[in-house]
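pasting for ref. prot 1 ->
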Amino acid sequence: MKRTLPALLISAGALFAISSRAAAQDRNSAAWRDCQSRAASALRVSTSNIDVNPGGEGNRGTYILNWEARTDRGRREQGFCEVDRRDGRIVRFETNPYRGGGGGDGGYYPPPYAGDYPRVKVDTDGKGYFNSRIGKTNRLDRGYVDLRDQTSVTLRGRDGFRITFFGQVTGSDGRREITLQISSSDRGDARGQASIRLNGDRNEVEWISVNGWMSGGDMRGEFNRNR
């Protein structure tokens, strides 16, 4: 018995490792489909525009699924899902490529944007909605964009709701459209993307869209000056 118990434990461990690798390769697994669905929701595209591929080992008993999205404008966006090996549950969804290993941020390193974009700080009345686990409103009445001091977007509602997302610029047309990678919020952990459009004079907010993940669930919001 003393000799067979270690052998049984080794066999069980090997079986678990094999089954975990198989799950990472299984395109029909729940984790694979969930990762594809989250990426499609965050980028606002069809799931048929999302390619998912196994990405190796993560941290603390997880594995990585890399995803790539083909957007309507022909651009390609990349990110990853970190999946718990024990139950196949996605424990982290990111809209940037996995950079590997250490650090407390799970490999979340938004690439710096070297292009030109408007360094403005503007806010405008409008209408819109926001929906997430931490709160929801259909009564947004003002949108704020700060690309000058602390890069952020803020959504405010006439019902007292207010949330600010912080991050960094990852893309722009150099004139009035900006993409912001969300890395945190004033209401807790948040990851995702904010798309911003300014008016022609770049002194008002024309449109803000936020998509991604926060507090263990999806988030989505939209503000429009002309709505």
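and prot 2 ->
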Amino acid sequence: MLTGVVSALMVVAGGACAIAGYMVGSWRQRLAFGLDMDGDDDDSRERFLDLLETLRDEKGRDNRPN
């Protein structure tokens, strides 16, 4: 009888942890998505252009034999 009660409590606790984990994870995902959508487009464009410039410069300095 005691074992059954303890087992039932463990099942309930596991379910509560699963629901809490889902809620925290979805909240963090929504927060990250919102921050991504609110980001400054000019800043991301600058970062993209900087990345392209860096890749172009590195390609020119590659002295490895073919």
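DSSP finds two helices and no strands in the chain.
The chain has one domain: 2-58.
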